[in-house]
Amino acid sequence: MEISPLQKARYEYSPKLPGMLKDGVSKISVKEGEVTSSVADQEKIKALFPNTYGKKEITFVKGENTSASKKQVVGVILSGGQAPGGHNVICGLYDALKAADKENVLLGFKGGPSGLIEDDYVEFDDAFIDAYRNTGGFDIIGSGRTKLETEEQFKIVEQVAAKHGLNAVVIIGGDDSNTNAAVLAEYMAAHNTGVQVIGCPKTIDGDLKNEDIEASFGFDTATKTYSELIGNIERDANSAKKYWHFIKVMGRSASHVALECALETQPNICLIGEEVAAKKMSLAQITSYIADSVEKRGNAGNNFGVAIIPEGIVEFVPEFSKLIAEINELLAGSKTEEFNALPDWDKKYEFIKAGLTAESFAVFDILPQGIKQQLFLERDPHGNVQVSLIESEKLFSEMVKDELAKRKAAGSYKGKFSAQHHFFGYEGRCAFPSNFDADYCYSLGYNAFMLIQYGYTGYLSKISNISKPADEWVAGGMPITKMMNMERRNGEDKPVIKKALVELDGKPFKFFEANRDKWAVETCFTFPGAIQYYGPSEVCDLTTRTLALEKG
User: Fold this and answer.
1) How far apart, in whole angstroms, are the C-alpha atoms of residue 401 and residue 368?
2) Domain locations in the chain as residue ranges
3) What does DSSP say about strands 459-464 and 474-479: parallel, antiparallel, or unpaired?
């Protein structure tokens, strides 16, 4: 296979490890901390996890390794969407396993959790692993979104583990995947299988974090990749001076990615979904807020700008959420067929008008035609509106355009408005990991083996103090149950890891809030440029602005 010069050079990069992991597995001791309890719903979570709840936080320190010596056979899966650095988690896990004992075995189960159920695996060796060091993507074994959550699935995993003599399974995934890891760990403990389960925190969305997990891996690389592209667009906007660029960025429900990109690039506008929800902002208010910036800049002769829109923004608009719920209700059951049988859009429009409340129809009616049709024509297998497919960048640019036309007619707006649209998502999920993500992920994998060797289960591999140089990072583990609460999912109360949304009283948002009025009117663009892998540490090992502000 042909490889690029950068890929060849990255194979040779040696990831940095936390100080206490540097001297090899024989020199690593464990220090136990406080007993933990879940973030909420303590009694319910405790009842669901009697064998894995209330365990102690642990930290690894330099010292004699006191764990029992035995051959380890470990399985690993990648679960959910891709995130840069996943390969290095596996490389770190493999290297630690082999450093402890050359006879230790690492099996990679293919295609995510389904690989465990179907017993579809590969046994790693040095040559296999070396071809994936410090590279992006999940193509080493692939990923998948099958959920491990039923008794039947757990029994199959137990059988597969027994067949291979697995001591442990490492699940590399986001909040849902690590929730499944906790449930699997509880099952394995309850049935005395001797199989440990360890999780690793992954997601570019940035919403798997708390007081223990300072960042999920992949967030650093993905936001740097998007910020480079946004910076390039800002430079182009400032050169051509004729377009407003509306840029939607990935991040699911949380706005961490949008906020980090805004801190990196200083656009004129960045919407934060959590703020929209807190202030109960309507579509009209959001439109007016963006239009104010366009108007002030246009009247000053600056008919260009950049607006960042988080992927899940419309879910945060109360009136829009209500509209979606009513549409889902309107098209329930056989009503979908009745709607689809109508001969043209005019007839469908009348059907919609008759079926929605006056308030929701008023919201529906101000939407651009393309978005109206998208809401009714593109539905998921359950017949629900596919909110993630709503092109919110186009929605807001169209609504801003209509608002500016009114302002022009009223004489307040003198400028010209022309929009371009972008969506940055897949570009960042498999990028070459930054040095930070390469180091962080390698440490997470190495550390996951230490948790296995010392006999822990139901724990998340935890590397902290990560805003400092890697030498000062602290390795350890935390029980996954500590992060859990009960939430309503598909009509049932389920234990899940609590998702972390942007905190409106947190330092990253406060910094953004203090500067955005200036950015909205003036051209304050900053240009991060491409991720740097070689050169001075202050350039190459730079962490995210979010982490720097949170831990500053």
Assistant:
1) 10
2) 70-218+433-497, 223-428+506-551
3) antiparallel
Q: For 317-329, give one letter per residue: b (16+ CB within 10 A) or e.
A: bebbeebbebbee
Candidates 368, 445, 439, 364; CA nearest to 403 is 368
CA distances from 252 to 22, 137, 258, 395, 425 (A): 36, 19, 11, 17, 10
Q: What Cα–Cα distance (Å) separates residue 194 from each residue in 179, 187, 308?
A: 20, 11, 49
Say whether 223-428+506-551 and 70-218+433-497 share the same fold: yes
Alpha helices in 191-218 (DSSP H): none
0.85 exceeded by pTM:
yes
Token pair of 496 as six digits: 């899940």
Residue 448 φ then ψ, to 5°: -60, -40
Residue 516 pLDDT level (bands cut at 50, 70, 90):
very high
- The 10s digit of each residue's pLDDT in 267-321 is 999 999 999 999 999 999 999 999 999 999 999 999 999 999 999 899 899 999 8
86 in Cβ contact with 218 (< 8 Å): yes
Contact 444, 92 (CB under 8 A): yes
What would the DSSP string read from start to end of 263-292? Answer: HHH--SEE--HHHHHHTT--HHHHHHHHHH
Catalytic center residues: 205
- pLDDT of 66: 92
Helix (H) or strand (E) holding 375: helix 369-377
Strands (E), 358-448: 419-424
d(CA 499, CA 508): 18
Confidence (pLDDT) at 370: 84
pLDDT digits (tens, 9 = 90+) for 466-476: 999 999 999 99
C-alpha closest to that of 307 among 246, 260, 364: 246
Cross-strand pairs, 143: 78
> How many C-beta neighbours within 10 Å does residue 242 have?
12
Angle at 437 between CA 202 and CA 543, to 5 degrees: 110
Percentage of the chain exceeding pLDDT 90: 87
| AA identity, residue 196 | Q
Identify residue 170 by its one-letter amino acid code. Answer: V
How many C-alpha atoms does 225 have within 13 Å on its Cβ side? 24
The rounded distance, in Å, linking the Cα atoms of 191 and 246 is 53
Q: What is the CATH number of domain 223-428+506-551?
A: 3.40.50.460
Dist. CA 144–CA 155, nearest whole Å: 20
Fold of 70-218+433-497: Rossmann fold (3.40.50)
- Label each residue of 430-470 as H, E or C: CCCCCHHHHHHHHHHHHHHHHHHHCCCCCEEEEEECCCCCH
